[in-house]
Amino acid sequence: MSTVTLEGVTKAFGATTALDAVDLTVAGGHLTAVLGPSGCGKTTLLRVVAGFVRPDAGTIAVGGTTVEAPGTHVAPERRGVAIVPQEGALFPHLDVAANVAFGLPGRRRDRATAERVEEMLALVGLEGHGDRRPDELSGGQQQRVALARALAPSPGVVVLDEPFSALDAGLRTQVRTEVRGVLRAIGATAVIVTHDQEEALSMADSVAVMDRGRVLMHGTPAEVYQRPADLVVARFVGDLVELPGTKAGATVETALGLLPLHGAADVPDGPVLAALRPEQIRVDGRLERHGHRAHVDDVVFQGHDSIVRLTLTETRPALRLAARSQAPLRPGDDVAVRVIGPALAYPR
């Protein structure tokens, strides 16, 4: 179980800074998701850890050994870091067993290699598939073969570059659950790069949110979602309801009333932007219930619940909100809304 440590890692491509003095520690045996929009630097971060790209400054250590520093560069094949690329990148002319064996030193067709290949295929739930060609497998099976190939030489660290992006929604959920189970079963240290918030929050032990080459926040999925470090993180990780307000002590006055605050000491009193998650907005179809009057503009059904677009009718100018609800609401309904739980506040 190798810890990965980056300190002050910087990389520019011409006038574009892909990594800007990045500090990040991935604990041994943990799965860390690097989350951010396209172009934020997350794939470059993965590639400098793997050794495919040399940073301009900073140090990288894997398992306590410095693999990148001024005057030091350990070759990718000697770092003990395995990579699972997008879409698997299997060799189409080799069968599954040969693809898995390709990750082993020498790739000899001896008994020890064959046993290791079978062990890896069993680990990813593909026993008996060794003689199949990649084009005979589903997308999810191909991704599991790619993982088996990466794990075969027992690397200290596994890095996964948006490995589920080519899969359809239903298969993506299944395969990422399987992959998480495999990585946890062997206690692997893993880094997964993704732009999918649900994927990062559901898979990882910790989430590092990146933007413009910098790590804005690194914490548990719950911390990143419930206590985002700034408004950029809050807006990127899940939907956000934003309300102008005035902070006074541990509360904020908004169009939805006086709300308690998380982390009140972090923001000075005065004008702020209060932030809530849509699930904190409770909607009741009976106006006689306690709450603020609102008008339903749209309802987007999502199966387990619906996203309800609302306009507060008590405010001037009108204020628009989003809420999650399981109630059978329709556009045009007049409802009552109230807030559950504390808000976050950010300087306006």
Automatic annotation (TrEMBL):
Example GO molecular function: ABC-type quaternary ammonium compound transporting activity
SUPFAM superfamilies, per database record: MOP-like (SSF50331), P-loop containing nucleoside triphosphate hydrolases (SSF52540)
Name of the featured protein: ABC-type quaternary amine transporter
Domain ABC transporter: 4-237
PROSITE patterns reported in the protein's UniProt record: ABC_TRANSPORTER_1, ABC_TRANSPORTER_2
One GO cellular component, as annotated: ATP-binding cassette (ABC) transporter complex
Keywords (A to Z) from UniProt: ATP-binding, Nucleotide-binding, Transport
Pfam family, one: TOBE_2
